[in-house]
Design brief:
By secondary structure, the chain is an all-alpha fold. The chain has one domain (2-96). 67% of the residues lie in helices and 0% in strands. It contains five helices and no strands. The chain has helices at residues 2-12, 21-42, 55-70, 76-84, 90-96. The longest helix is centred in the N-terminal third of the chain and has 22 residues, at 21-42. The radius of gyration is 13 Å and the shape is flat. The model has no long low-confidence stretch (mean pLDDT 77).
């Protein structure tokens, strides 16, 4: 997942413009970090097989993000972004792995 995240960032940098480039990219990296932590916690393979990513993994991820927000380890607004942002990147991440 780390390699997929690095590849995504390097691919996205030329497509971004304006003053807020680092914040947008760091938000996505944080979201992918939460996804990785969720997969390690919930799957037997620790999230190593990205091609096996399924609906149950996404449900566990959203529950994990809600838990982080509830316990104060993540801001509620960050939790909403985390739950929404990686959705479009799941397919790309699976192909990068």
């Amino acid at each position: 997942m780390r390699r997929a995240c690095k590849t995504w960032v390097l691919d996205e940098i030329p497509r971004r413009y304006g003053k807020n480039i680092p914040n947008g990219l760091s938000d996505m990296v944080l979201c992918l970090r939460y996804l990785s932590q969720s997969l390690v916690r919930s799957r037997q393979d620790g999230g190593a097989d990205m091609a096996a990513l399924g609906r149950s993994d996404i449900e566990m991820f959203t529950q994990y993000v809600a838990h982080l927000a509830h316990t104060g380890r993540s801001a509620p607004s960050a939790a909403r972004r985390s739950a929404a942002s990686p959705a479009g990147s799941f397919t790309k991440s699976a192909t990068w792995a």
